[in-house]
Amino acid sequence: MPFVTKLDLTSGDRGSLDRVVEDIKETAARKGVEFGGPHASQPRQQRAPQSKRLSTTGGRFPDWTYTIYSRTIEIVGHDEFARSVAGGEFPAGVHVEVDIERVR
Predict the structure, then answer these.
(1) Which residue positions in the chain have pLDDT lower than 50?
(2) Predicted structure pTM score
(3) Cis peptide, bond prior to residue 49, ω within 30 of zero
(4) CA neighbor of 93 nearest in space, from 13, 4, 31, 21
């Protein structure tokens, strides 16, 4: 029974995210790996509050707003390749979540 390794990659830097995904995609094509994606999700806006001081009485700056981009790819079978990709080094701004599913 093959495994499907699903990688969810997110970043605030779309260029860096796209370079990582393109590198994985090119490597998979060279090795003949069955590859699905990349599937892009709608970018989402994130907000972070900013205080002027460490104490709660110092007032606040406007919220810091930034965009998070995400791509999803699937690797069918090829467990060694999937393991090497999931365990590889990624740029500091790219976050990776891995989900492994057994298919019948």
Answers:
(1) none
(2) 0.78
(3) no
(4) 13
